[in-house]
Specification:
five-stranded mixed β-sheet; about 625 residues; about 50% helix; Rossmann fold; binds S-adenosylmethionine; RCMT; 14 strands; Alpha-Beta Plaits; alpha/beta; RNA binding; N-utilizing Substance Protein B Homolog, Chain A; nine-stranded mixed β-sheet; MeTrfase_RsmB-F_NOP2_cat
Length: about 625
C-alpha cells in the first residue's frame, strides 16, 4: 500500500520489526497464511522470534486497531508506517519490552507508552467489536430528495444536539483533515458535525441511538458510512444524466446518486438476486428516488442495445468485505478469506468491470468500488481490466480527494490511481474506489458490437450469407435480421412500467417477482412467438437464440457461479479466438456449478466482440471497394 511512509533508515529499525510489520500487513491485506509467510522469510536466523512477534501482533488485532484509534497516533504521526506501529505497540504493551534504539519510529511509539497502557485498561478485551463501534463516529447521509440539510440540522438542534464546526487551521489539506479527524473521534454525547468532503453528510458519535429518530424511519436520513458515499461523490454525474448501477442492492449508492441528480435523469439499477432486488425496490421507494428504474437480472445480460444512452456507470460488485470493520474476521481471523475465494471474486469483478467498459459506448465515466482492502480485488482488477480492454479507458485520480484518500499500490499498473479509505486512519469502513474515464480512442463506439456474428459460428454465417447473396442483398442491414424482440429488454420495459406505476401509487414495495421478473409461462409464450417468427422469416439469422445462448453463458459469470477460470492471474486474454473456443468447449464440459449448469470461461466471452468488430470492418471495407 502506498501510505505516506516515514522514511525509516533500514540500518536503524531492527530487522525483526520491519519483517514482522511486512508479514502482518500481508496477512491483514491479502489474507495470506501467517505461518507460510514467516517460514518464507529470508531472515532465517530470526524465524523463532519473528513467528512469536507476528503471532502476538495478529492475536491482538482488534485491540491494536482500537489503540490506534483512541490514541490517534497515526493521525498525529502521519509518517509512521501503520504496520510497523502495530508490531512496535505489541512489543511494548503485550510483550513488555522497551523500544530502545535511535530509530524514529521506535522513539515515537515509546513516547506513547503511557497512553497505550491507560487506553488498554479502558478497552473491553472481551468485547472488541463493541469497543471499536462505539469509538468510531457514525455517518448519516441526508436524503435531500426528502429533506434539506437545513431541515435535518434544525431537527437535531431542536432535539438538543450541538452542531460543532471545524476551526480554520490554515490552507494545508493535511492539517485540515487531521484536525477534522481529531474532532470527529472526540465528539461527545449530543454533538455532531458536517463532513468536510461529502456534501449532506453528518457525523455523530459512535454510540448515537438512531433507531428512535423519526427522520431515520421516514427515509429522510440514511445510515451510510462515509467510505460508501465516495462512489456517488466521485461519479459526479450532472443533472439529467443517464446512469447505470450494475450491482445495486440494497440501493445505498443508487439512492445517493438519485439525490445528487435531484431525480433529474435516469438511473438503471440492476440487481441479480430476487430477494435483494425486493430490498432495493423498498429502499428506492422509501427514498422517493423516482428517477431509478430497478431491474431484476444480471448486469452481464444488458448492453447499450437494452439500455441506450448510458453515460455514467457504477460497478460495486460483491467482494470479500474485508474492509467492513463490523466483520469479525477482519480482526479475529484474517486467514478466513481464502486465496481461492479472492480469485473467484476477482474473476467476477474483472468480468463485470470489463463488461461496463466494452458494452456501453456512450459511457464517459465509470466508478469501480469495493469494501475490500485486498489488492487482488482492487488494484489487480484495475490492472487486469485495463490490460485486456481496448485502450479506450484510463484510470484517473479525481482532484477532489487526492489530498486525503490514500493511493493504491503502484506495483500494479495505474494502481496508484486507486484510492483507499482505511479504518484506522480515516475512521470509516475500509473501502477502495477507482475512477475510469473514456479516452479519445473510441473505436468501440463506432461499430456497435454484433454478438450474432461470433455466436453463430463461421459455417452458419457462410450459409446465411449464401442465402442472402442469392436474394441479391446489397446492404449489410438486409443481411442482418430485423431486430427481433429482445426478451430482456421487453421484460425490463414492462418491469419499469410496473415499477413506475407502483411508485406513483406508492406501492413499489408490493412489486414482487411476478411483475418485475417474467413469469415462466410468459417466457414460454414469448419463446414460442420468437420461434414462430423464425419459422416464418426465411432470412432470419437466429439472433435471439444466439443472444439467449450467450446470455445463458454470461449469466453464470456471477459471484456464486465463478470457476477457477476467472482467475485474474491467468493471462488468457491474448489467446486466439480458436484457442478460446476450444477452451470454452472444454470449460463447458468441465465446469459445473452447484445447479449442474455449465459455466464458460470469461475470457472467451469477453474478447469475442472485439473479433466481431474487426471482421465486420473487413467486410465493410470489401463492400465499399466493390
Ligand atoms: C456490494 S453489493 C452492492 C451494494 C450496493 N451498491 C449499495 O451501495 O447498496 C453487490 C450486489 O451485487 C449483486 N450482484 C452480484 N452479481 C450480479 C450481477 N451479475 N448482476 C447484478 N447484480 C449482481 C449482489 O447480489 C449484491 O446485491
Amino acid at each position: 500500500m502506498s501510505e505516506t511512509k516515514f522514511r525509516h533508515s533500514t540500518a536503524r529499525v531492527p530487522r525483526l520489526y520491519k519483517e514482522a510489520g511486512k508479514i502482518v500487513q500481508k496477512v491483514r491485506e491479502e489474507g495470506g497464511s501467517f505461518k507460510g509467510l514467516v517460514f518464507q522469510s529470508k531472515q532465517r536466523s530470526l524465524l523463532k522470534s519473528l513467528y512469536a512477534l507476528v503471532a502476538e501482533t495478529l492475536r491482538h488485532g482488534s485491540e491494536l486497531d482500537a489503540l490506534l484509534r483512541q490514541t490517534q497516533i497515526l493521525i498525529k504521526e502521519p509518517r509512521l508506517d501503520p504496520w510497523l506501529a502495530r508490531v512496535l505497540i505489541t512489543e511494548l504493551v503485550w510483550r513488555q519490552r522497551p523500544l530502545s534504539g535511535p530509530a524514529m519510529p521506535l522513539k515515537i511509539v515509546q513516547s506513547y507508552k503511557s497512553q497505550f497502557l491507560s487506553e488498554q485498561n479502558n478497552l473491553s478485551i472481551n468485547l472488541p467489536q463493541a469497543a471499536s463501534r462505539a469509538s468510531r463516529p457514525r455517518f448519516i447521509r441526508i436524503n435531500t430528495l426528502k429533506a434539506s440539510e437545513d431541515e435535518v440540522i434544525n431537527f437535531f438542534l431542536q432535539e438538543g444536539w450541538h452542531l460543532q464546526t471545524v476551526e480554520d487551521v490554515g490552507t494545508s489539506e493535511d492539517k485540515k483533515y487531521s484536525h477534522f479527524l481529531q474532532k470527529i473521534s472526540s465528539l461527545s454525547e449530543r454533538e455532531f458535525i458536517k463532513d468536510i468532503h461529502i456534501p449532506n453528510l453528518l457525523v455523530f458519535p459512535g454510540n448515537m441511538e438512531f433507531y428512535n429518530i423519526e427522520l431515520y424511519h421516514t427515509g429522510s436520513i440514511l445510515l451510510q458510512d462515509k467510505a460508501s458515499c465516495m462512489s456517488a461523490f466521485l461519479l459526479n454525474a450532472p443533472l439529467g444524466s443517464t446512469v447505470l448501477d450494475m450491482c445495486a442492492a440494497p440501493g445505498m449508492k443508487t439512492t445517493h446518486i438519485a439525490a445528487t441528480l435531484n431525480n433529474i435523469g435516469t438511473i438503471y439499477a440492476i440487481e441479480k438476486h430476487p430477494a435483494r432486488f425486493d430490498s432495493l425496490c423498498q429502499i428506492v421507494s422509501q427514498a422517493e428516488a423516482t428517477c431509478v428504474k430497478p431491474i431484476c437480472g444480471s448486469s452481464l445480460d444488458f448492453t447499450h442495445k437494452d439500455l441506450p444512452d448510458v453515460e455514467y456507470i457504477i460497478v460495486d460488485p460483491t467482494c470479500s468485505g474485508t474492509g467492513m470493520t463490523s466483520r469479525k474476521e477482519l480482526f479475529s481471523d484474517t486467514e478466513d478469506v481464502s486465496k481461492a475465494r479472492l480469485e473467484k471474486l476477482a474473476g467476477f469483478q474483472c468480468a463485470i468491470l470489463r463488461h461496463a467498459m466494452q458494452n456501453f459506448p456512450n459511457v464517459k465515466r465509470i466508478v469501480y468500488s469495493t469494501c475490500s482492502l485486498c489488492p487482488e480485488e482492487n488494484e489487480a482488477v484495475m490492472e487486469e481490466v485495463l490490460k485486456s480492454t481496448p485502450p479506450n479507458f484510463k484510470a484517473i485520480v479525481p482532484s477532489n480527494c487526492t489530498q486525503w484518500m490514500k493511493r493504491g499500490s503502484n506495483s500494479y499498473e495505474q494502481g496508484d490511481c486507486g484510492l483507499y479509505a482505511r479504518p484506522e486512519v480515516d475512521l470509516t469502513n475500509g473501502f477502495f474506489v477507482a475512477v475510469f474515464e473514456r479516452t479519445e480512442n473510441e473505436y468501440v463506439l463506432k461499430e456497435p458490437i454484433d454478438l450474432t456474428q461470433v455466436e453463430v459460428g463461421k459455417e452458419d454465417l457462410k450459409k446465411k450469407k449464401k442465402k442472402k447473396d442469392n436474394k441479391k442483398a446489397t446492404d449489410e442491414e438486409t443481411v442482418r435480421a430485423p431486430e427481433p424482440v429482445n426478451p430482456a429488454f421487453e421484460r425490463m420495459k414492462r418491469a419499469m412500467g410496473n415499477f413506475n406505476t407502483a411508485l406513483e401509487n406508492g406501492s413499489a414495495n408490493e412489486l414482487n417477482g411476478d411483475t418485475i421478473q417474467e413469469s415462466k409461462s410468459s417466457k414460454k409464450s414469448k419463446k414460442k412467438k420468437v420461434d414462430k417468427e423464425q419459422e416464418t422469416n426465411e432470412d432470419f439469422i437466429p439472433l435471439e437464440p444466439c443472444t439467449e445462448k450467450k446470455k445463458k453463458r454470461k449469466s453464470h459469470i456471477d459471484e456464486e457461479h465463478l470457476t477457477e477460470t476467472g482467475n485474474i492471474h491467468e493471462n488468457n486474454f491474448t489467446d486466439s479466438i480458436s484457442k478460446k473456443k476450444k477452451k470454452k468447449k472444454k470449460s463447458n464440459e468441465l465446469d459445473e456449478d452447484a445447479d449442474g449448469d455449465n459455466i464458460v470461461a470469461q475470457d472467451s466471452i469477453e474478447s469475442a466482440p472485439v473479433e466481431s468488430i474487426s471482421k465486420k470492418k473487413k467486410k465493410k471495407n470489401k463492400r465499399n471497394s466493390e
